[in-house]
Amino acid sequence: MRGKRNGHGRRGATVLVWIMVLPFAAWAVLRWTGYEPGFRWRQLVAFTPYVAAAAPVVLVAALALRRWPAAVVAGAVSVALAAAVLPRAVADDSPGARGPALRVLAANLLYGQVPTKSVMDLLRRTGPDVLTLQELTPQALADLRNAGVDALFPHRVLHARHGAGGSGIYSRYPLRGRGPIDIGFLQARAEVLVPKAPPVEVVSVHPCAPAVPASADCWRKGLAALPGAEPRGRPRILAGDFNATLDHAYLRRLLDTGYRDAADAAGEGLRGTWPNIGKYSRTTPRVTLDHVLVDPRVAVHDFTTHTLPKTDHSPVQADLVLPAR
What we know:
- The chain crosses the membrane at residues 12-32, 44-65, 72-90.
- Keywords: Endonuclease, Exonuclease, Hydrolase, Membrane, Nuclease, Transmembrane, Transmembrane helix.
- The strands form two sheets. The protein has a six-stranded mixed sheet with strand order 3-4-2-1-12-11. A six-stranded mixed sheet has the order 5-6-7-8-10-9.
- It is elongated.
- It folds into two domains: 2-89, no CATH class; 101-321, Deoxyribonuclease I, Chain A.
- The chain has helices spanning 2-33, 39-44, 48-64, 68-85, 116-126, 138-146, 149-152, 216-224, 249-255, 262-265, and strands at residues 101-108, 130-134, 155-159, 167-171, 175-183, 185-192, 200-205, 236-241, 260-261, 290-294, 299-305, 316-321.
- It is an alpha+beta fold.
């Protein structure tokens, strides 16, 4: 009788361990294959760093219970998830760019409601050469203009809209405007003419947020419309609120064209940038939705995040060195 109970206990422990292991295994497979089965997974995959941190707990449980096949699978899953996440915390070697330095700052104004004084204080404190704004409304644009933003940035390409769909690019250097990417939200584009460097195309990135199933297609198309890197063409910098993390397949496909994520390159790729305020901030772990993607010829010297009141996104700043002309 005791042997029968022990047999049931062993089988129960085996089943329990596999119940713990299999969801992590499925997560790792989906993450690495890039298969995104539906709207809900596109939201969940953003939390891969947290899943990677929890995976070794399952491995320890399998080892403690001596369930060796499950332990082998749990070990492989832990390694796979760590390989996807940990490189973001290690700085990469930068290319030996010898052109001028360029500081890029990107900020989401959350329907234009960030106090103008706070924005101006951040700009004066950080001194960016190029500023990309998302959710730029006509009122926010007027308030910034009245506060003196044009004196800091004499060149600009602006597409203000009511709600969340507007964006803009401000620059200390001359700009050549290009048509915006208009898929749900407007994503401003311009060429920045920096002395002693080739013209650099900059995009103020802001695809639709995949907050509800109806916006998932707009989000996907907005990301897909972003221009890929051209290692032999003009350098490009994409800066803003991507509404995607490095674990989303669509963003990884963009990176595969040659871009480097500035935070990842600087070893700061695990800095969360959303949510800072609002209902999600009380229930949702922070994830990295805001990025600066740079041409492979551009060196990344530093990356940091800032805070602004009344926005759920952290402004992101990248200190770059451009290739020489």
